[in-house]
Write the structure tokens for this entry.
Amino acid sequence: MRITQGAFSFLPDLTDDEIRAQLEYCLDNKWAVAIEYTDDPHPRNTFWEMWGAPMFDLHDAAGIMGELKECRAEHGTEYIRVNAFDSTFGVETIVLSFIVNRPAAEPGFRIDRTETAGRTQRYSIVSYAVDRQPTGERYDA
Amino acid sequence: MTEHTETGGPPSPEDPTATSATQSAETTAPPVTIDLAREYEEAGIAEVLDSLDRDLVGLEPVKRRVREIAALLLVERVRERMGLSAGAPSLHMCFTGNPGTGKTTVAMRMAEILHRLGYCRKGHVVAVTRDDLVGQYIGHTAPKTKDVLKRAMGGVLFIDEAYYLHRSENEKDYGQEAIEILLQVMENQRDDLVVILAGYEDRMNQFFESNPGMASRIAHHVSFPDYTADELFEIAEKMLGEWNYRFDPEAVAAFREYLEVRRNRPHFANARSVRNALDRIRLRQALRLFEERGSELTAADLQTIRETEVRASRLFETDDETAEGGSTP
């Protein structure tokens, strides 16, 4: 099942041109762009690995597309996302985040039910990919 | 994941690598005739070229060259629209000349022209020297250079004193790595970035001899001649006009003399030296006005520069070479 995290996640995968258009929009708004990757798709996993530092002061998306290409070369079988950070006073947060690369097969999640005191059920989501393999081997192409 | 080729949105002059087939598929058939005058008007480069003529004194060969390059690019653009593309032209340039001859200024105008003709997506200029590209330890150079290149994408990268990138005497020097990254980007991302190198002519020639790869990627070599004394005076008058000063007639003669002498002294940086000299003259004028204070001053008094301010320069004091060798007069 396709994970639906971040913007545009209910749409089909963005083409490179569409990614570039989004990046140009971010640069027009003077946001800093950063690339992150991970192989743990749990929705509560917010700390993905950073690919390089956030890129401030760029004028054109060509530089970011180059970084994305290099990230895909190394982590093409994992999830890669683009974050845009707005540094204006009072905002200072990530204002746009969308996935730009996914593994070919996403096995999805199951629900783990734990019984606690008084037959109360505690639920948690477990990713099949994380369950089966340690990191680095989860999404071999 | 699939990698889609760039076809762009509207059939755009923004994409010099689009083939005629793609364009015809995207748009109506290519035009049969093109009015070059109208294209020239629409591109809007006339005003940039005219302001170049107006704002820069002298530099006739440079202005001519810039017009030639602009004409070439305009015609290339037009040919592409008609389906007669000759492939993406190489736009990298090399400006040679002494300091203060307007290389950075012309590079900015060139970026403007390239942007208006659609060869540069954004048209900004990132001016760097060797220190911005080369690192101090192993592994430092590549990210440093790549960061600079990322910032310059979509515009022009202006590398001043480019020959310092290659220091052959020092094996621990990482300049070669920066050169290699540059060469790769200059070749593979020609539609993303235009590189303009600048520096002294003889040293740039040496640099090109030891880096034939770099030389082969440079399409246009533009040489910036030194200003004549008359041109330097014209520059001085322009600067004074902007700052609301003027020479009185004796000061004019004195300053012309000053320029004649200063030009032949060491460390002459053309327009920059003129500006520094004018700054010192303004200082002396302010000092004179202050020391003579007590009477009412008119605007004319505040604006006029007299001969004494010019003659006070150390340049006129002595012809002793050792006195000149150190600081500037």
Summary: The interface with chain A takes residues 1-4, 6-8, 121-122, 124, 143, 149-151, 153-155, 189, 192-193 of chain B (CB under 8 Å). Confidence is low (pLDDT under 50) at residues 1-26, 320-327 of chain B. DSSP finds 17 helices and seven strands in chain B. Residues 99 and 182 of chain B are 24 Å apart (CA to CA).
